[in-house]
Design goal:
Blueprint (H helix, E strand, L loop, with lengths): L3 E3 L18 E6 L9 E5 L7 E3 L20 E8 L6 E2 L1 H4 L9 E5 L17 E2 L1 H9 L4 E4 L12 H8 L3 E4 L9 E9 L7 E10 L4 H5 L2
Parallel strand pairs: 5-7, 6-8, 7-9, 9-10
Antiparallel strand pairs: 1-12, 2-3, 4-10, 4-12, 5-11, 11-12
Helix pairs in contact: 2-3
Length: about 220
């Protein structure tokens, strides 16, 4: 198991959250140290807290919910593309020479990963442009991930979300790719199975040159 790299943000009180979402709070309601028989924690947060997946239903009326998505969106061979040199956004021209094909899982690494630990929401993060999202949708990829809490830029009408989710592509946001090199990995990224959920927190693991593809195809 040491070959797996955990790229999941820990869930904790006060962590960075999208401004319109419910802040994350954990509260210990029972404590063995206080004489209770168990330790018990209440958790209050948005379904889009930390490392999470967006299902089409997040933006598309009648779109599939997180519990309706096929496992192939979550387990399989993934490619990490390193755009750490990009200061503001990733455009379609940045993706054009990457050999992106139908059925791919594409994870976008930027300099966002170095700042995900900050509590205050960033406004100068790297995002995916509408044209880049449309490029990926045209290529019919399965999944795209990025190392920030939204794949869209600030002060937009969410064109990347509409293009990707409208094409049935799952979006993973809040990935911590700081220590991940560009290349090919096997990804295990399982969102919580929330009935009718527009998204869900997920635990995401990457394995360099792994061998999960044949196993996953039989699930």
């Amino acid at each position: 198991m040491s070959e797996y790299i955990d790229v999941t943000l820990p869930i904790k009180t006060g962590q960075m959250h999208y401004p319109a979402d419910t802040p994350c709070t954990l509260k210990r309601v029972l404590s063995i140290a206080d004489g209770d028989k168990v330790n018990l924690t209440d958790l209050n947060m948005s379904a889009h807290t930390g490392t999470h997946a967006d299902a089409p239903a997040h933006f598309i009326q009648g779109g599939k919910t997180i519990d309706e998505m096929e496992i192939s969106h979550f387990i399989g061979r993934a490619r990490v593309l390193d755009f750490s040199d990009k200061e503001y956004y990733i455009d379609a021209t940045d993706l054009a020479d990457k050999g992106i094909e139908k059925g791919d899982i594409i994870l976008l690494k930027t300099h966002n990963s170095a700042r995900l630990h900050e509590a205050e929401y960033l406004t100068d993060y790297v995002y995916l442009t509408a044209e880049a999202a449309e490029y990926l949708a045209e290529r019919e990829i399965l999944t795209v991930g990025i190392d920030f809490l939204t794949i869209d830029g600030p002060d937009t009408d969410f064109p990347a979300h509409y293009a990707l989710l409208g094409a049935g592509i799952v979006i993973f946001e809040g990935l911590n790719l700081l220590d991940i090199e560009a290349g090919e990995y096997e990804m295990v990224a399982l969102p919580i199975k929330i009935a009718g959920g527009d998204g869900a927190p997920a635990r995401v693991l990457l394995k360099k040159n792994g061998c999960l593809t044949e196993t996953a195809s039989g699930i």
